[in-house]
Amino acid sequence: MSSVTDHGKPDHRGGGQKAVWTTGGTVFAGVLMLVNGLLGVFAGIAGIAKDDVYERIGDYVYKFNLSTWGWIHLVLGIIIAVVGWGILTGASWAKAAGVALAALGIVAQFLWLPYTPLWALISIALGVFVIWALCTDRPDSAGP
Fold first, then answer.
1. Are 34 and 85 in contact (CB under 8 A)?
2. Which of 36, 48, 107, 31 is nearest to 77 (CA)?
């Protein structure tokens, strides 16, 4: 339970530690989405330019042209970066959009596995963290 300090601000010691952690996690999720979106834009540009950066590893069920993947990553990266910025600015629509786009990003990275397996797995893990952070944030329990 929170008490009020001498300055009229809520005192979140004790039970409030979880609220501080989840609020910090939300800010970190916004930063991750912004950075991951920008990296997606760069990956998309490299795919569209038909650069020799990407080479398919093995045979995979989901086969798309590299230019198609480039456009998917470019558009998805722009949208993810915008939503990440929205989360950082505290926009009311951004959390729900962030959860949906993180889930879509996880699916896209799973399909992108044959081209960059290590980065795709890292991005999937980051997407899971973003979903957790945005779903556990309670704005009414956070401090001023």
1. yes
2. 36
Contact of 130 with 101, CB cutoff 8 Å: no
The predicted pLDDT at position 13 comes to: 46
User: What's the whole-model pTM score?
Assistant: 0.73
Q: Are 26 and 134 in contact (CB under 8 A)?
A: yes
Contacts with 113 (C-beta within 8 Å, 6 or more apart), sequence order: 60, 120, 121
Half-sphere exposure of 84 (CA within 13 A, CB side): 24
**Per-residue pLDDT at 131:** 94
Query: Taking the CA atoms of the chain, what radius of gyration do you get in angstroms?
Result: 19
What are the tokens at 122?
A: 């890292």
Q: Give per-residue burial for 87-126: e unless 16+ CB within 10 Å, then b.
A: bbeeeeebbebbbebbeebbebbebbbbbbeeebeebbeb
Q: Where is 79: in which H helix or E strand? A: helix 66-89
Closest C-alpha to 137, from 97, 95, 106, 85: 95
Phi, psi for residue 4 in degrees, rounded to 5 = -105, 135
pLDDT band of residue 26 (cuts 50, 70, 90) is confident
